Amino acid sequence: MIAVKQPWEVQRMRTSARLLAEVAEIVRSAVRVGVTPVELDALTERSIRERGARPAFKGYQVGRDVFPASLCSSRNEQVVHGIPDDRPLLEGDLISLDFGLEYEGYFADLAFTQVLGPVPPRVQELLDVTREALYTAASCAVPGARVGDIGHRVQTMVEASGFGVVRQYVGHGIGRNLHEEPSVPNYGKAGTGALLKPGMCIAIEPMVTMGSWRCRTLGDRWTVVTADGSLAAHFEHTVLVTSHGPEILTALS
Ligand code: MG
Questions:
Q1: CA-to-CA distance for 135 and 253, rounded, in angstroms?
Q2: Domain with 14 in it: what CATH number?
Q3: What is the pTM of this model?
Q4: Separation of CA 239 and ligand 1 centre (Å)
């Protein structure tokens, strides 16, 4: 059952998403060589709480495993769900930052990848293609489209550029819970899957690799890395389906 938000709920979603975009902008401007992910996590948590919101990831539980931080920071071959550590960021690093908060009962989710300093053109292309795949996918989130249309667009774009699409982790519905139905894979067949209707909210989040799409999880039971050690990028927005088209709720300025 996919939740269709009432107009008052849509307003709540807009507020949560705007607060999260503010937080992400603050943290984005703090990313530089020498800063540690632990410092970025502290800044994330402080910025979320200053807004009267609650970090969505801190304390998030899968089975007996509890995520310990307010920010997911995934570096280089790490794809998603990295736990912030105290190793300073280095020139040439890729860092993917994933943010989530809950405000007055409604969740928002947002991620981006940044590079530190100059990187080889193919690495910049990885970022550009992943970001572009997100915006192209978001443009498919219109009433009457199906979830498979989104995955199909992402997969087609990404694979045409010679990159890999992660299969194991997918986007999701979002609202009163961080993760709701439907699952929103970054691969699939057009014309299949759940039908999108006005008032539905989904987090679209392509995860793209320089090599094989296969991933594994590290011994910390959270950090997902590419199986072949290739670099990865991740971009995500919380998107509302409206009768006049998609609205990217977490848009950054
Ligand atoms: Mg997400």
A1: 15
A2: 3.90.230.10
A3: 0.97
A4: 11
The region, left, alpha or beta by phi > 0 then psi within -120 to 50, assigned to residue 52 is left
99 CA to centre of ligand 1 in angstroms: 9
Residue 101 belongs to some domain of the structure: yes
Distance (angstroms) between ligand 1 centre and the Cα of 205 equals: 6
| 82 assigned to some structural domain | yes
- Residue 34 token pair: 């020498």
Distance 203 CA to ligand 1 centre (A): 6
Number of compact structural domains in the chain: 1
- pLDDT for 147 equals 97
Residue 253 located in a structural domain: no
Quote the CA–CA distance of 178 and 81 in Å, as a whole number.
14
Q: What is the pLDDT of residues 144-192, one digit of tens each?
A: 999 999 999 999 999 999 999 999 999 999 999 999 999 999 999 999 9
What pLDDT, in 10s, does the model give residues 8-57?
Answer: 999 999 999 999 999 999 999 999 999 999 999 999 999 999 999 999 99
- Give which of 199, 187, 203, 114 is closest to 151, Cα–Cα: 187
Ligand 1 ion: residues within 5 Å (CB): 109, 203, 205
